[in-house]
Amino acid sequence: MRSEGALLELRTDLKTFKREEAALARDIGEQQSTLATCLRGSKRKSVSWNG
Question: Which of 3, 22, 26, 23 is nearest to 11 (CA)?
C-alpha cells in the first residue's frame, strides 16, 4: 500500500512538472518573439540613421 501512495505522488509530481514545463516553453517562445521584434525594429532604425 505504501508503494501505491508513492506511485500516485510521483504521477502527480510528473503531471505538475509537465504543466510547468509547458508554461515555461510558452514564456520562452513569447520572449523570443518579443526579442526578434525588437531586433528587427533596431535594424530598421540603424538603417534610417545611416540613410
Answer: 3
Cα–Cα distance for residue pair 16/21, rounded to 1 Å: 9
Supply the Cα-derived Rg of the chain in whole angstroms: 22
- Here the cell at position 44 is 530598421
Q: Mean pLDDT for the chain?
A: 88
Domain count, the chain: 1
Residue 9: give the domain boundaries: 1-51
Q: CA 12 to CA 17: how far, in whole Å?
A: 9
pTM, entire model: 0.65
